Every structure is written in structure tokens, then in C-alpha cells.
């Protein structure tokens, strides 16, 4: 999994939410194990310094909720291609807002607006050993 974007540049337009974009770096069939869908929990991404308290999936450009994109009628796209034995890359995995978890399919990019809070129980990362 690749953390593609993490920015607060648009926080003023999104009630203080931070833009987060993640991607699966492998393609279908590129590797026997690493090309499979990956489970990711947003609430665990920044567990030391920050915690994700709210998340909403949006379009790649972050200008629309993902539900609006999925509810539109799509133009049929006919493709002649070799079908792999595994169709794990075809199945859609919705974002679970309760557990803040998602599945990333091979080569998939997903975008979220997240609300971060500082974790006040952060322990010192540096221990000198001279205590």
C-alpha cells in the first residue's frame, strides 16, 4: 500500500478534514501473494501521533462523495481481454465507516477526507538509555 497524498491544503473547504489518498502498488497477476486485495484500517494509520476519528470516501479529485459517483448511470464499456482465474480484482469493496476499514484491490486508488485528532498519550520516541 502506498500513501499517495496526505494534505490539509483543502481543509478550509472541507470543515478541517485532511485529504488522504492511498493506492495498491501491484497489478493483477504481478505477484502471487502481493497482487491480492489488501485490508487497511484508517484508524490505525497514524496511531502514535494522531488518530483518525472520522472518515468519508470521496471521488479521486475529492469534489464529490463516492456514493454520488456510484449512483450515476454508467456507459457500458466492452473490453476483449483474457480473464484471469481469480476475479478478486473485479469485486467492489465498500468503505466501512464504522470500523474505518477498507479493501484495496490491485492498482486501485481510493481517496478520503479524514478528521484527525492529536493523540495526547504519545510516549517519548527517544529514550537515551542514560536514565
Keywords:
131 residues, mainly beta, 4-stranded antiparallel β-sheet, two-stranded antiparallel sheet, 1 helix, 30% strand
Characterization of this structure:
- By secondary structure, this protein is mainly beta.
- 5% of the residues lie in helices and 30% in strands.
- The chain contains 1 helix and 6 strands.
- It is globular.
- The model has no long low-confidence stretch (mean pLDDT 84).
Category by helix and strand content: mainly beta
**Low-pLDDT ranges:** none
- Total DSSP helices: 1
Q: Could you state the order of secondary-structure elements as H and E?
A: EEEEHEE
Coarse morphology: globular
Neighbour order of strands in the largest sheet: 1-2-6-4
Number of strands: 6
Largest sheet entry? 4 strands, antiparallel
Give the helix level as a range of percent: under 10%
Please compute the radius of gyration using only Cα atoms.
Answer: 18 Å
Average pLDDT over all residues: 84
Taken as a percent bin, the fraction of beta residues is 25-35%
Span between termini: 38 Å
Amino acid at each position: 500500500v502506498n500513501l499517495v497524498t496526505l494534505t490539509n491544503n483543502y481543509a478550509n473547504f472541507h470543515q478541517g478534514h485532511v485529504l488522504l489518498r492511498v493506492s495498491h502498488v501491484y497489478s493483477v497477476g504481478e505477484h502471487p501473494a502481493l497482487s491480492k486485495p489488501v485490508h487497511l484500517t484508517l484508524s490505525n494509520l497514524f496511531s502514535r501521533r494522531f488518530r483518525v476519528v472520522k472518515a468519508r470516501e470521496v471521488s479521486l479529485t475529492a469534489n464529490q462523495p463516492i456514493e454520488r459517483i456510484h449512483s450515476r448511470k454508467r456507459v457500458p464499456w466492452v473490453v476483449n481481454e483474457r480473464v484471469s482465474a481469480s476475479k478478486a480484482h473485479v469485486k467492489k469493496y465498500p468503505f466501512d465507516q464504522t470500523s474505518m476499514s477498507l479493501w484495496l484491490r490491485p492498482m486501485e486508488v481510493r481517496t478520503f477526507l479524514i478528521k484527525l485528532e492529536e493523540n495526547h498519550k504519545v510516549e517519548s520516541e527517544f529514550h537515551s538509555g542514560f536514565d
